[in-house]
């Protein structure tokens, strides 16, 4: 019984520390969690579920027959079974949220197909864990109220969690980096180191609780690293700002010359008229909506930046003509859809100038001057078409 008591103290202390770390980090960094964005919402859900897992794991450990704390009856055994079912479900939710966060944070956009696939995976796991309540094959609670691992449970968790938690995020991280993607300030290895250490210790030493401590420290490190993002965000639109563009320019100049980029400059047509006729608040709304439309149109192909006033910059991670044309088409389509489906006293349209970034011949400043000229040529062309 002595060893069980020691384990109980370890579990309570470990989960208590994990909760304290999460509370302090989440409370002090809540302003950095943008719940309107996909990655921000997934991070918030991850933090909430992780906190609940810490609480439930502590309680199921207390009522477990092996702890010797509570006399066993139908209620404690049922609570043990349901509580562990909840923590197992929480683990898969956190894996899904982590996968969404990594893609959303690195790419700025998560495709709906990915959300649907993850929802399907979660539903399959949920069905599997519910079946376990009636036919134990992942874990079981015996007649003495003691929790036991079942061999197949390892393989079930490996089948679901490893691809979501490890393979998919790492694959996309490497894919974006190799394709010339300009990665954000995100120490992905720090997260994996903390989380993997916690998982490894809990697997090697049965009866102690280190998984959620590892996850809490990983989330804490992630939130602290996101502090670097604040100075690079435009407060109005939520897009990256000119400071971030300066950072990208330095990174592009210092990058492998084989890295291929395409730079676009965009200007919101008639923005001055919107401000003058409908007020600056409506002008701000137009800029916010423009940013949203551009992010959807660009997706994972690049990064959208508010350059100055009503001007925007897009850095694409490619020079493939088909993709460039697709992005331009998507931008125009998104604005057309918005103009047809929203009742506002004005229409939104954008002028675009773009150029492939041939860093072997020109530096980034020359590139910016080039796309600025091309954007104004497109604006003049649109004016003449409207006058005609």
CATH architectural group of the largest domain: Up-down Bundle
Uncertain regions spanning at least 5 consecutive residues: 1-6
Strand content: 5-15%
The CATH topology of the largest domain corresponds to: Rhopdopsin 7-helix transmembrane proteins
Q: If helices are DSSP runs of H or I spanning 4 or more residues, what is the number of helices?
A: 12
Structural class: alpha+beta
Could you say how many structural domains there are in total? 2
Range of helix content: 55-70%
C-alpha-based Rg, rounded = 26 Å
Q: What is the total tally of β strands?
A: 6
What gross morphology would you assign? elongated
Q: Which strands sit side by side, in order, in the main sheet?
A: 4-5-3-6
Overall pLDDT metric: 82
Largest sheet: 4 strands, antiparallel
Report the order of strands and helices: HHHHEEHHHHEHHEEHEH
- What is the highest CATH level, the class of the largest domain? Mainly Alpha
Terminal Cα separation, in Å? 90 Å
Could you walk me through the main structural features you see in this protein, from its secondary elements to its overall organization?
With 388 residues, this protein is of the alpha+beta class. The protein folds into two domains: 2-231, Rhopdopsin 7-helix transmembrane proteins, CATH 1.20.1070; 242-387, 2-Layer Sandwich (Alpha-Beta Plaits), CATH 3.30.70. 66% of the residues lie in helices and 9% in strands. It contains twelve helices and six strands. Helix 1 packs antiparallel against helix 2 (38-63), helix 6 (188-204) runs antiparallel to helix 7 (211-225) and helix 9 runs antiparallel to helix 10. Residues 1-6 have low confidence and may be disordered.
